[in-house]
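Hey team,

Filing this mostly as a record. A colleague (T.K.) asked me to run one chain through the structure pipeline before their review meeting, and I want the input and output archived in the tracker in case anyone asks later how it was produced. No errors, nothing strange. Just documentation.

Input sequence:
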Amino acid sequence: MAHHHHGNEHGHGYGHGQGTGHGHGHGRGDEHVHPDWAEMGPMLESSAELFASLYERALGWLAQEVTEPGLIVDAGSGPGVVACLFAETFPGARIVAVDGSEPLLERARARAERQGIADRFGTITGELPDVLGELDYPADLLWASRSLHHLGDQRAALAAFAERLAPGGTLALVEGGLPPRYLPRDIGIGRPGLQARIDAVEAEWFTRMRHELPGHVAVTEDWPALLAAAGLKPTRSHTFLLDLPAPASERTRAYVITSLSHRRDRLGEALDAEDVATLDRLLDPDDEASLHHRPDVFVLEAHTVHTAVRPG
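Output structure:
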């Protein structure tokens, strides 16, 4: 369950990397065939870096209510981009990055080393939520970015997250937001509205992915209500925007190409033939109408952060 966004591919707007993400978020893809995270590491790291401005704003917002935390835990940290931003935002804190993928945590440790924060940066490898039992002491801030929706019983997982908080500690949950937009509605090839149709198919895929998780329990995705049911006091929810307008930088363009090629691989059989043909043209470097050459590629994504506090 390494994601963020693993998202990062940051996944679909329903939740998913960095996670991206990923956490994995792991985008955080979300493939439950256990992708080769070591191989995806560079892509997950690069897409999480693309989202750095969004995370910096989110962490600044968190810092308004979380003052001088001693221990910050990133549950589903992926390659550690956000965990290292936490170290920057909270210079007095010890950071622990937790993920199911040791290769991604190797990247996290290397990043912490490069940034000169290795002395207060640790990692724990294992599956959420049980691995949190390995923490030496309770967390003052536990950040779970698009990792929760990879766990079959989200209610039980939130209760486990809540148990690992110190009294007065904060759980920051990144779930929801909006599906991303990378292109105008009418792109001059295929039928207009391609991304909206991909979203509909992806929503069905996401529902299936959740149903196939071990121990799956259906819940109404009212995150503040679920946080309250875990014994926490919900405080605030806020949505942060990543707005990278056209013309896209090379890194932004690469992210969009990776993201849509993941969707093509994951959803291709469920999309209609014309949309698959359009996606194939968008992904073909030799096609002038492709993402590699178009001037109108952009990134517009919205991630929602919900916070709740463990009563003191």
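Quick notes for T.K.: The chain has a mean pLDDT of 89. The two ends are 30 Å apart (CA to CA).
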